[in-house]
């Protein structure tokens, strides 16, 4: 193939512009991204070689080497992983295939700080090299292809890139960064080792750098032709808990999630018994931009006996825990397991059940902690992820009770953080139901005339204003033997909360007002099923309610809005 010049996809140009302009304050991440790509490439080779061992050629030991050259002002990342064909190089390094890119781009606001955070969440990948380089050369040859099927890809990270054929006897990829003016701080062995060590400690293959020695005569550090690992090269989750610091756990989380913040909580366990696996699961501190998307696959990576199998193995977690990130390494699954097989596997079912319990346990220990700071963490979690966790009430019958205890609400008594148990503990003498009202905003809920009698009597009412709340109520009927009752439905029965005098008054009113009611019923006959005298109002003259068991007025409005 002769040298060709090709243009970047429009989205890539935008990403390149953003990455080089807004990630400058956090520029060392290019080291994380390029080492992680090299490691991914080795994982892919190991996976493909399961079916074709000849792909290892004569180099069975997978590794990544990072070198720098002070005179040429370059940093080179070299791996002996899967490599790329010419077509793959053009597609992978010229377009963005990731789903959600468009949505992601549309969320950028042009505010550098916020955008940088978003880009961090999205994962900048290969293009981050251009933060510090004004030219990147990639030389690669796919495993199994002939030596003369190598490719050289070069770009200055603006509008286009060049590709040409080369001969490359070794399989794998070299990424060569030609540093921009002023980026010489990275031409320093100490610095590179420190940063790469931090980012790659949990990677399961060795990341090697050359040793350096002080040359007294030349009065400078000289690099020797001797390579030594800068990381422990043991996949983090395979190590013993006692040997892992919270910082290492956090670093691993950032690497797999692209989050810039440390996680809220994590759980790391080796499970033995019927099904054997290791789980390292994290709850993020902040919701990602696409949390709402139920089609988005989960954030759990599947390994089998330390071989990477797939990202986003959604069968490992229920949909309502799609925000959980982490790794599950199974000892039982076959290495050639597919997404389809995962759906049916009994081992996977056991893993999903076990992992769900662990995640709920993690949330419970925050929510019920003696420590106020931990409880505050749960409050923060609820703020960001509560709407998603609520989906579990209808989806996960096995954990229904545990989930109901994790719910938090706003009520007429407290602006946030009201659990059903809190509510029950504040119930009035003789109160039998948990009263709730749904509305599309807190203001509407609070000003609802249906609340008047409850206010007057000091009875707490939960104010439900999330879009999923109607749906939640259809799956949440009672808690500790107390039924949930909407104050906007039917003839709210205050039961023994009402005194005799009030009951009598209501009966008298009903008789006295009968002629008025009859006329109103006649006048509204096409629009109202019934017109009744009520005791639920204090100041307002009238209010609308729906029949017990009917779609609530709020839900009816939502359905109408959705065009149904
Ligand atoms: P991601 O790693 O999230 O897919 P990147 O921007 O980091 O996104 O990389 C884009 C793609 O380029 C990768 O998915 C991979 O196909 C290819 N790639 C990057 N670096 C390498 C490498 N060292 N070896 C083989 N392929 C690579
Ligand atoms: Mg990457």
TrEMBL record:
GO terms for cellular component: cytoplasm. PROSITE patterns: HSP90. Residues 26-183 form the Histidine kinase/HSP90-like ATPase domain. ATP binds at residues 33, 37, 79, 84, 92, 98-100, 121-126, 173, 339. Keywords: ATP-binding, Chaperone, Cytoplasm, Nucleotide-binding, Stress response. Residues 1-339 are annotated as: A. One of its GO terms (molecular function) is unfolded protein binding. It comes from the Bacteria. It holds the Pfam family HSP90. It is found in: Cytoplasm. Molecular chaperone. Has ATPase activity. Belongs to the heat shock protein 90 family. PANTHER family: HEAT SHOCK PROTEIN 90 FAMILY MEMBER. Homodimer. This is Chaperone protein HtpG. It comes from Piscinibacter gummiphilus. The gene is htpG.
């Amino acid at each position: 193939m002769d040298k060709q010049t090709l243009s970047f996809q429009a989205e890539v140009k935008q990403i390149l512009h953003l990455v080089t302009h807004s990630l400058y304050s956090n520029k060392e991440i290019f080291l994380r991204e390029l080492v992680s790509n090299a490691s991914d490439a080795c994982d892919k080779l190991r996976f493909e070689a399961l079916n074709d061992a000849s792909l290892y050629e004569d180099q069975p030991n997978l590794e990544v080497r990072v070198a720098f050259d002070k005179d040429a002002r370059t940093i080179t990342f070299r791996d002996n992983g899967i490599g790329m064909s010419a077509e793959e190089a053009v597609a992978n390094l010229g377009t963005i295939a990731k789903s959600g890119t468009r949505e992601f781009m549309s969320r950028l606001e042009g505010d550098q700080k916020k955008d940088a955070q978003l880009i961090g969440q999205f994962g900048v990948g290969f293009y981050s090299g251009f933060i510090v380089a004004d030219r990147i050369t990639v030389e690669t040859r796919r495993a199994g292809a002939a030596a003369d099927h190598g490719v050289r890809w070069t770009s200055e990270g603006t509008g286009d890139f060049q590709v040409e054929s080369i001969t490359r006897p070794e399989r794998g990829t070299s990424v060569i960064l030609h540093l921009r003016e002023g980026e010489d701080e990275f031409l320093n062995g100490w610095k590179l080792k420190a940063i790469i060590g931090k980012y790659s400690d949990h990677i399961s293959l060795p990341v090697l750098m050359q040793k350096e020695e002080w040359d007294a005569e030349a009065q400078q550090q000289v690099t020797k032709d001797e390579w030594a690992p800068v990381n422990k090269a043991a996949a983090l989750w395979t190590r013993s808990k006692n040997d892992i610091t919270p910082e290492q756990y956090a670093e691993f989380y950032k690497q797999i999630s692209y989050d810039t913040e440390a996680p809220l909580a994590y759980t790391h366990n080796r499970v033995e018994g019927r099904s054997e696996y290791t789980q390292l699961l994290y709850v993020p501190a902040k919701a990602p931009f696409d949390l709402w998307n139920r089609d988005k696959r989960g954030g759990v990576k599947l390994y089998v006996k330390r071989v990477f199998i797939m990202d986003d193995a959604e069968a490992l977690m229920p949909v309502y825990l799609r925000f959980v990130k982490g790794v599950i390494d199974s000892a039982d699954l076959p290495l050639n397991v597919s997404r389809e097989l995962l759906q049916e596997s009994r081992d996977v079912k056991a893993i999903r059940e076990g992992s769900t319990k662990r995640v709920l346990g993690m949330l419970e220990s925050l929510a019920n902690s003696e420590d106020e700071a931990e409880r505050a963490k749960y409050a923060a979690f609820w703020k960001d992820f509560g709407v998603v966790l609520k989906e579990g009430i209808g989806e996960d019958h096995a954990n229904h009770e545990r989930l109901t205890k994790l719910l938090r609400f706003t009520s007429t008594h407290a602006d946030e953080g009201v659990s059903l148990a809190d509510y029950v503990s504040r119930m009035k003498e003789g109160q039998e139901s948990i009263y709730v009202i749904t509305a599309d905003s807190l203001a509407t809920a609070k000003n609802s005339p249906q609340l008047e009698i409850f206010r007057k009597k000091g009875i707490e009412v939960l104010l439900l204003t999330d879009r999923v709340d109607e749906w939640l109520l259809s799956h949440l009927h009672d808690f500790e033997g107390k039924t949930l009752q909407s104050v906007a439905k039917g003839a709210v029965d205050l039961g023994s909360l009402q005194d005799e005098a009030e009951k009598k008054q209501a009966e008298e009113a009903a008789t006295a007002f009968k002629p008025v009611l009859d006329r109103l019923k006649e006048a509204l006959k096409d629009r109202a099923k019934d017109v009744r005298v009520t005791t639920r109002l204090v100041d307002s003259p009238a209010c609308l309610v729906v029949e017990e068991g009917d779609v609530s007025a709020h839900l009816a409005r939502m359905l109408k809005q959705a065009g149904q």
